[in-house]
Amino acid sequence: MANADRVEVDPVENEVRHGGRRVSAASLNWDVPTRGTVFSVLLNHAGTMAAIGKARDEAPKSPMLYVKPANTWIGYGAPIPLAAGVEGVEVGASLAVVIGATTSRIESGRADDCILGYTIGNDIGEPQTALAMPTLRQRCRDGYCAMGPWIVARHEMPPIDRLRIRVLINEVLVSANPLCDLVLSPRQLVAEVSSFITLCAGDVLLIGIAQDALVARLGDRVRIEVDGIGALENPVAAEDGFVAGARP
Q1: Residue 61 and residue 68: Cα distance in Å, rounded?
Q2: 15: in domain
Q3: Predicted model pTM
Q4: Which among 38, 82, 107, 170 is placed 20 to 30 Å from 236, CA to CA?
C-alpha cells in the first residue's frame, strides 16, 4: 500500500485520523481495501467441525476453500443485495488476511512474513440447510462479499488467538466468537493455500466463519466487529436497483 494511503485508525471508535482530523468511518465513501483474489474458507473452527462430526458421525477431514470473485466485492456502507423471493442473507463474519508479497510453497514458520495485515470480511451467502460445497448461486451473487474498512498492518495487531469477532444486527449483539479455536491459523492457512496456489500481493484469505448461520433480512443493518481492527457495517437492501459501490 502506498504511503499516501496510510492513515491512523482508531479501532475502538472506528475512526480514521489524517492531517489532524478525526473522521468516522460511517461518514466516508469506502471501496474494498485491496483488489487481489479473495479466497474463502469454510469449516475452519474446531467447534464447528466437532458439531458437524457429531451430527454426521464423522467430522470433515479439512476446511473447504473457494473463491469470491470480483462481482461479489462491496466496501463498508455499501448495501448487501437481497434477491427477490429470498428470505434473507447468511452473515459470514470473518477475519481477512491480506497478502503482502508473492508467496508460493512457503513454510508455516515463515508465513507471517508474507502477511501485509488484516481487515474484516463478510462472506455473505444464501442460507442453506445442508453441508455441501457452496454453489455459485449461494456464495457468489453480486455484492456477496463485504470487506473493510481498512487494513491494519500485521505488526500492529494483537495476537490473533486473543481476538473476538462480534456480529450485531440492528445494533443488537447476536454473536461473539473467539479466534482461539481455528483449525488452521492465518500462518498455517497461508502455508496450506500457497502449497498449490501462488498467492500475490493484495490477495485475501477469509479465514472462516465461527458461528452458526445468522440470517439478516431486508432493512437490517449488519455490523461485524473485530478486536484490533474496528467494524465493518452494511445494510441489507433489495437487489433491484443494486449498483456495485453504491451507498444507501
Answers
A1: 22
A2: no
A3: 0.89
A4: 38
